[in-house]
Amino acid sequence: MQPLAILDGLEIKLRQLSAAADRQRADYERIVAENQQLKQALDRQTGIVSSLKDKLERGQPDNAETSEDETTDVATSNTAALSKQQRETIEFCLKEVDRCLEWLQRN
Where are the chain's structural domains? Predict the structure, then answer.
């Protein structure tokens, strides 16, 4: 084999490796940016979950304070409905946070 042909083959392989390295670098930068965005989203969701938990804890009626009067029953049912909605929101947020954490751990 001619030395010139060997050099040409090496040059082609080096260009291919350089192109592959450039693609890997671009993928890495894209993934790092996406990871940063997901971390920010996770922080926001964590803050929302904490806020909702606090609201839920403050919004829980005390059993000793409830009376048998009709207005209290209506208020209790409204509070229960609100509590159920807040609980569903919290559960949804927790699932989203878990999903984000799983994705971050895989990547």
Answer: 3-106
